[in-house]
Amino acid sequence: MSVEILDGSTVRSFVEDEGAFNSSVDGRFAALDADHDGLLTYAEMAGELMSLRVLEKHFGVDDADVQPDELATLYHGLFARFDRDGSGEVDRDEFRAEMREVMLAVANGLGFLPVQMVVEEGSFLKVAVDRELGQPAKAA
Predict the structure, then answer these.
(1) CA 49, 52, 16: angle at the middle one, nearest 5?
(2) What are the phi and psi torsion angles at 7 (to 5°)?
(3) Does residue 92 lie in a domain region?
(4) 40: which strand partners?
(5) Residue 85 bridge partners (DSSP)
C-alpha cells in the first residue's frame, strides 16, 4: 500500500487511455479466470466482489447488523451488473464495460480537488496514479 494524491482527472485520464486501461482490466480479468476459459463465474469473482467491502463501517469489517443472506444477495446483485447479458458468466467485454463505469463513477466522486488516499499496489487507482506520474505500471 502507498499514500497517493489524486483527483478525478487522474482516474478519468486513465480510463480514457484505452490501451492502458484495457491492459490493466484484462490483466485483472485473467487473474480472476481460474479455469482460463475466458469467462468469469460468480465463484471466480466472489472474492474480488467481497473485497470491495461495500458495507464496511469499521476498517475492514462489514456492518454486523447485516445478515449473511443479505450480503449474499448484495454480492450476487453486484455480479449481475457485470453479467450484462444474464448468461451467468462475465466475458471480457462485459468486465471491461462495467469496470469502465465503476472507474468513471470513482472519478466523478473524487471531483476536481486533489485528495490523499491509501491505495493498494496493483490496484486500478495505483495504476492510474503511476501512469500520470510516468512510472511503469505493475501488474493489476
Answers:
(1) 90
(2) -140, 180
(3) yes
(4) 90
(5) none
pTM confidence score: 0.82
Dihedral over alpha carbons 50, 54, 55, 58 (to 10 degrees) = 90
CA dist 49 and 74 (Å) reads 10
Domain of 100, in residue numbers: 2-133
Q: Indicate whether 113 belongs to any domain.
A: yes
Domain total in the chain: 1
Q: Would residue 35 count as lying in a domain? A: yes
The answer to whether position 36 is within a domain reads yes
**Mean pLDDT for the chain overall:** 87
- Note the pLDDT of residue 69: 82
CATH of the domain at 43: 1.10.238.10
